[in-house]
Amino acid sequence: MNVSTGALVRRWGGRTVALTVTGIGLYVVAPSMLALFGAWPQLRDVQPWWFVVLVALEACSMASLWWLARLALAPHPGPGASGSPPRGQVGWGTTATAQLAGNAASKVVPGGPAAGGVVQARVLIRAGQPPAAVASALTAVGLLTTGVLLLLPVLTVPALVIGPPPARQLQLGLLVSILLAIVIVGCGVTALTWRRVLERVGRAVGYVVHAVRRGVSPQSVATNLVAQRDRVATAFEGHWWRAVFAAAANRMFDYAALVAALMAFGVHARPSEVLLAYVVAQALALIPITPGGLGFVESGLTTLLVLIGVSADAALISTLLYRLVSFWLPIPVGAMAWAGWHLHRTTRPDPAGNAGI
Prior knowledge:
Shape: globular
Helix content: over 70%
Distance between the termini: 26 Å
Largest sheet: none
Number of helices: 13
Number of strands: 0
């Protein structure tokens, strides 16, 4: 069978480039990863209950995403599109399985977020959710969680200014996470409720961007921002408060896990400065060079913790503990969720009739 060169390039070209970039990225961060895992024996000094605390916080962070996805997929009253009957509510088990499997895929596959989204969508569609509804819901979830992440740097500056000055009160970081969640909910609901407020914010940001890139106008930035807001508002119609709260809880429980990892080693640092390190680390996780920002997050977080006054050894082992629970542990959990779902669907008829998906 003859296969054209163009077809081969289209099929494998992008994958080859992605694998090459990933390989280069892993080569660059290999020394820092070796140093990080070289600190593994020091985990024996951690009290066992700290592992329980971190796992519980990360479980709450993931559960917030499950809740958010269920809200986005919640059926609206009345008939659906084209007069079809409204779809049924997706179950907690299905939502959790889809998110866990997609999250695991995003951490091991180059171009992780896209691959993870495909896996998550596949599980939801096989569970009986319409493909269009799934695509819209996952897009809205991504936009809202990304919006919360982009809001955190804005909130970090006041936190640095008015944060508790005693350097020995890192435990207040748990209180800071609660206060930030409340502020995030207020900002999110304001953006979803008052469209004009968001438009003005978009124009203000547009003026700043325009000063750097002359081709970008303030009105275009405001228009794009409002358009994304409308997509989120439509997906979470009737559930705005809960949706924003779930998105805020997802980030703040994760931040609290980092605080707990530092407390496990008796680190003294201001929670507002730890928040700054967390925000930058989450931004590094979005770099598509390695899956889940592997290597870049560890290097960046360790460096930032040292810059805020944490000793190099404590910063290294705390980062290892935090990433062990937030990055590595979800991979086998997601793999088991995927295997369980795959086994279950082979013994149960497909409610959506999507056998080929």
